[in-house]
Amino acid sequence: MNQRFGCTSAGCTGKEESFDPMEAHRRLADKFNALGSLLTSYMNEAPLDRALRNNHAIQLALATARIIGGTPVSKGEYKDCCLIGESLPNGIVQWNCTGVLVHPQIVLTAAHCHQPPRVTASVVALSCESMNHLKDAEVIPAKISVAHPKYLQTGLHDISVIILKKPATTPPCPLATTNELKSSQQLSLVGFGNSDVYSTRGFGEKRHVQVDIIGIRKDPNDDLDALEIKYGFESDVEILAGGLGFDSCNGDSGGPAYIDLGPQRKVAALTSRAFRGASKPCGDGGIYTRTDVELDFISHVAGSYSISLN
Predict the structure, then answer these.
(1) pTM, 2 dp
(2) Which residues are in the Peptidase S1 domain (predicted)?
């Protein structure tokens, strides 16, 4: 495998940029125009129409592939949180999303990371803090990436299972149970995404931030309809978290949302997208795909390759 690394797409350079006021203004205008068009169309349609809401979820996930207000991780911290990349014809690996190792041969990430025009994930980089320093990283090719079959139909279940060609030596992080998640009040978000709200600054550097859980269904009788309509999420399979300048951002998509259980850390969810109606691309809070409700899907894909999660 040609070990050349880079990120050639717009918004994915990972290099610090000199500040250009005119360019910053142009980028900001472009972002607001794009999101404004989406939100205007949503306001003109029936807010209670579940099919429309599902379609909106897909569009927002792709438009705001979405760590703001956080800090760089220490060396060796969150080794299971990995870069997700695609091998280009020129031999360069284009890093574009974040994932998490939950089994020596299984990485989870967001389904929207691999929807057209993007291609299937082909490589992951574990045990690293930056895409610019991969000399000591554990880089493993992917055998296959399987997106949840209901994602394109509904916009929900924003999760893909990546089967690695060989087991990783990096220790995986266990998945949280439903009861463990329901008893938690905060999530620790980790990812390689942008650290600036309106630019690509910080992409490729692993950062973390702790955020409050705003909305989660703890009981079938919980009335969360108002939150679902306002923020555009489905409480049966997703969590609302973050805001007030603490959030995930572009490039963090598919990255882990951990819960801390004393000395142990577990994966509770994956970064999906921004709130509906967010006033800026990142920082207002986000929507996260619960991994506990996706366990059957994860186990099914793993079993297809004779892998047991237990």
Answers:
(1) 0.74
(2) 67-303
